[in-house]
Write a structure and sequence with these properties.
The protein is α/β, with parallel strands linked by helices and about 675 residues long. The protein has 3 domains: about 5-290, Rossmann fold, CATH 3.40.50.620; about 310-315 and about 330-540, Isoleucyl-tRNA Synthetase, Domain 1; about 565-655, OB fold (Dihydrolipoamide Acetyltransferase, E2P). It is about 40% helix and about 20% strand. It has 21 helices and 26 strands. The strands form 7 sheets. Strands 1, 2, 3, 4, 8, 13 and 14 form a 7-stranded parallel sheet that branches. Strands 17, 18, 19, 20, 23 and 26 form a 6-stranded antiparallel sheet that branches. α13 packs parallel to α15 (about 410-430) and α17 (about 440-460) packs antiparallel against α18 (about 470-480). The protein is flat. The relative contact order is 0.09. Bound molecules: 5'-O-[(L-methionyl)-sulphamoyl]adenosine (MSP). 5'-O-[(L-methionyl)-sulphamoyl]adenosine binds near residues 9, 228 and 292.
């Protein structure tokens, strides 16, 4: 039986995980789950890319040693995958010794093959991409089109990999393996890039230290992509260590890299060339998916629409988010993440489609008419309409598997929903609520109920890779235990009629309770508040574009000392801003409503209107002087004071960087 190995890219740790990362990781997890259901030995790898200039600089900006910085970034990624119910078998970090050793071993193999030489390099470098750029890759003004930032000129002594020698070999390999890169259109781009001729690749740096040292020349550290790509085999112990490597990288294993379209070139050209040089087997397939925008705009921290998966999981649950991510966008195409589409799909496909099918059959028909017990299957008593439904189930089971084998998760879901729709139609047509009233038609009622329950069991398996928890909940309602894949046991449904008669069903809470208009508004408002909390606070300097350093003013001298008791008289509290609006008569004042944990929010005026648009403040936790006497300004009574620092660049409100409850004392 073929083993199945699927990998995600290893994510750079300079950012926290967002919905784009979640997209690949969920796709990889669902493929791994599918192959486990088929009984194949399966392995899912994800991890973090922790070296390189980008990380080194980010750590320096934060004033942290790089190792301390990267260590701190591990939990957010691990937590995100846990929250999303992604269960990797291994989580590799490129700073681990087990990885660094293997990267050095690979270097030595490339060297032994005569493919590494020392030379000098001068070209444009984009730190965002961690990659050199030729003039033709750049936009006017030497701007990297991916990152919208100017590239830098780099000149240094560097080791080179003889990539130019691999053009023909790669093209021959592509020719012999027409499915090596997917989708096809992207494969054509790769081929035409290689046909134009490949330049040798600079694979070491002397200008930064944060990387794997080059064996034998410690003045150099390795190019971060050579380091990073090796993770796919170093996590298996590398080619010199038998069992795991042989099982998941040997010729009998299917090895799939899922990557975003932006990093395809590294995976489809550099990585195979390194492997060819080292005499190591190539991956089976590299699948390049598209990019997600959020509500129609490119995700960016500057725009404040950088979407972490956590709040979405809190709002909808992991399974629903997994479903939506895989359903909304054709794998391989660009697409948009839209909160309102998510809710539409939830209500339409999950609540009305699948949830309703389960509910109407179990709660109304089986409980009322059959004492909650699964009837016995009677293949001899099938009517044409029953056969039709069975045919749909069989076809959907087959097609769904084909789509998942071909890594087309959205089509697999489309196909599963054909069965959901067919089963709902079958219930409408067979009208079991009439059969229920006629004791003479009991056998027919049993047959109809069985058909639908068995379809639900099928759906619970076909959909399990996407929504493991909801499918286990569905199975529990049918009286079945959770799906427990095991190597060697193919659980994919193929024969209709395997649901055992006599099982006691357990109708329970709705699988997908409908989200009504009021709940929708609440969820959207909560997500928007979360977003604003994460958004950078625009001040006058930021409005013009990139934030600028305000010019330093001479500092006020520190005031004479006071006794502690005097300080303790000032009652400082955390206040959560619930509402903010401009005061019509004033240019500077905003009228804020702030929750201080009291029965009613306080109205507080703050002179910050020139530094903050009101909507950027909602949801923020600020520091309030809570025991000042009320003061009337512009006809409005202000019940406290919000603390802020001011310099020539404007005002900066003091915020608490954790979700402490409103009213918490600040001391
Ligand atoms: N560290 C490299 C990968 C090395 S793999 C040997 C890297 N990291 S990354 O964190 O910048 O990006 C990781 C993946 O996230 C890429 O596949 C990229 O395409 C994907 N995405 C980042 N933003 C995305 C969207 N907005 N939408 C979909 N995927 C996106 O590149």
């Amino acid at each position: 039986m073929r083993s199945f190995y699927v990998t995600t890219p290893i994510y750079y740790v300079n950012d926290r995980p967002h919905i784009g990362h979640a997209y690949t990781t969920v796709a990889a997890d669902l493929l791994a789950r599918y192959h486990r259901v088929r009984g194949q030995p399966t392995r899912l790898l994800t991890g973090l890319d922790e070296h390189g200039q980008k990380i080194e600089r980010r750590a320096a900006e934060l004033g942290l040693p790089p190792k301390e910085f990267v260590d701190a970034m591990v939990p957010p990624f691990k937590e995100a995958w846990e929250q999303l119910r992604c269960e990797p078998d291994d989580f590799i970090r490129t700073t681990e010794p087990r990885h660094e050793e293997k990267v050095q071993a690979l270097w030595r193999k490339l060297e032994a093959a005569g493919d590494i030489y020392l030379g000098e390099y001068e070209d444009w470098y984009c730190v965002g991409c961690e990659s050199f750029k030729t003039e033709k890759d750049l936009e006017e003004g030497q701007i990297c089109p991916m990152h919208g930032k100017p590239v830098e000129k780099l000149k240094e002594r560097s080791y080179f990999f003889r990539l130019s020698a691999y053009g023909d070999k790669l093209l021959a390999y592509y020719e012999a393996h027409p499915e090596f890169v997917q989708p096809e259109g992207r494969f054509n781009e790769v081929k035409s890039f290689v046909r134009q001729g490949l330049r040798d690749l600079s694979i070491s740096r002397t200008t930064m230290r944060w990387g794997v040292p080059v064996p034998g020349d410690e003045a150099h550290v390795m190019f971060v992509w050579l380091d990073a790509l090796t993770n796919y085999i170093s996590a298996l112990g590398g080619p010199d260590e038998a069992p795991l490597f042989d099982q998941f990288w040997g010729p009998e294993a299917t090895k799939v890299h899922l990557v975003g379209k932006d990093i395809l070139r590294f995976h489809a050209i550099y990585w195979p060339a390194f492997l060819l040089s080292a005499g190591i087997e190539l991956p089976t397939q590299i699948w390049a998916h598209g990019w997600l925008t959020v509500d129609g705009t490119k995700m960016s921290k500057g725009l404040g629409n950088f979407l972490p998966p956590g709040p979405l999981v809190d709002a909808f649950g992991a399974d629903v988010l997994r479903y939506y991510l895989m359903r909304e966008v054709g794998f391989g195409q660009d697409g948009d993440f839209s909160h309102t589409h998510l809710i539409e799909r939830y209500n339409g496909e999950l609540a009305n489609g699948l949830g309703n099918l389960l509910n109407r059959m179990l709660a109304s028909i089986v409980r009322r008419g059959l004492g909650g017990v699964v009837p016995v299957y009677r293949p001899d008593a099938l009517e044409p309409i029953d056969r039709e439904l069975i045919e749909v189930a069989r076809r959907v089971g087959r097609e769904c598997a084909e789509h998942l084998e071909a890594i087309s998760p959205h089509r697999a879901l489309e196909s599963i929903w054909e069965l959901v729709a067919a089963a709902n139609r079958y219930v409408d047509q067979t009208e079991p609520w009439h059969l229920l009233k006629d004791p003479a038609r009991r056998e027919r009622l049993e047959q109809v109920a069985y058909q639908v329950l068995e379809c639900l069991r099928w759906i619970g398996t076909l959909l399990w890779p996407f929504m493991p928890d909801r499918c286990d909940a569905l199975r529990a309602q049918l009286g079945l235990g959770p799906l427990e894949p095991a190597v060697g046991e193919d659980l994919w449904p193929d024969a209709f009629g395997q649901l055992e008669g006599g099982l006691q069903t357990a109708p329970g809470a709705a699988l997908f309770p409908r989200i009504d208009a009021k709940q929708e508004a609440e969820i959207l408002a909560r997500l928007e508040r979360d977003r604003l909390e994460r958004a950078p606070m625009p001040g006058p300097a930021a409005e013009a574009g990139e934030p600028q350093e305000a010019e330093a003013e001479p500092l006020e001298p520190i005031a004479p000392p006071i006794v502690f008791d005097d300080f303790a008289k000032v009652d400082l509290r955390v206040g959560k801003i619930l509402a903010a609006e401009k005061l019509s008569k004033s240019k500077k004042l905003l009228r804020l409503q702030i929750d201080l944990g009291e029965a009613e929010p306080r109205v507080i005026l703050a002179g910050i209107a020139l530094s903050y648009p009101p909507e950027a403040l909602i949801g923020r936790r600020v520091v309030v002087v809570a025991n000042l006497p009320p003061r009337k300004m512009m006809g409005v009574q202000s019940q406290g004071m919000v603390l802020a620092a001011s310099d020539a660049g404007g005002l900066g409100v003091l915020c608490v960087d954790r979700d402490v409850p409103p009213g918490t004392r600040v001391s």
